[in-house]
Write a structure and sequence with these properties.
Elements lengths: L3 H7 L11 E6 L3 E7 L19 H19 L6 E13 L8 E12 L2 E10 L2 E14 L3
Antiparallel strand pairs: 1-2, 2-4, 3-6, 4-5, 5-6
Length: 145
């Protein structure tokens, strides 16, 4: 549905911090599905961990947040000129390590927006198995604030 060039028109992130490769599905205002191909070429694998490469959990959370940002951007015109800030990560669970060769599938659902705070349920799966989940909260602010 959205390729990497279209994603880069939405997200301000760039290599090595752009953690979304493709959007597969989106129901505007409701949900989104995306993927990230995890390769040994990722810069974090040099130090996390030599001889036993594991994708850092915080980067999986960041990737889910980037996917959530794309959903918010596509759902609400008022956030398109703004920058996203995390305001909360609740109930994060890491169930299985993510290693080179894995393809992360992100499934993010918009729960709602209250007083300018977007709430998302996010999951990351590898081969249909849940590896990470969290409730993400974000707000959008003017870039000059």
């Amino acid at each position: 549905m959205l390729n990497i060039n279209e994603i880069m028109k939405i997200l301000p992130h760039r290599y090595p911090f752009l953690l979304v490769d493709k959007i597969l599905e989106m129901e505007v205002g409701k949900s989104i599905v995306a993927i990230k191909n995890v390769t040994i070429n990722e810069p974090f694998f040099q130090g996390h961990f030599p001889g036993h490469p594991v994708m850092p959990g915080v980067l999986i959370i960041e990737a889910m947040a980037q996917v959530a940002g794309i959903l918010a951007y596509s759902s609400d015109e008022s956030v398109r000129s703004k920058i996203t800030y995390f305001v909360g990560i609740d109930n994060a669970r890491f169930r299985k390590p993510v290693t080179p060769g894995d393809q992360l599938r992100f499934e993010v659902e918009a729960i709602g927006c209250k007083r300018g705070i977007w709430i998302f349920n996010a999951k990351a799966l590898v081969e249909g198995k849940l590896v990470t989940e969290a409730e993400l909260k974000a707000t959008f602010a003017d870039k000059n604030s």
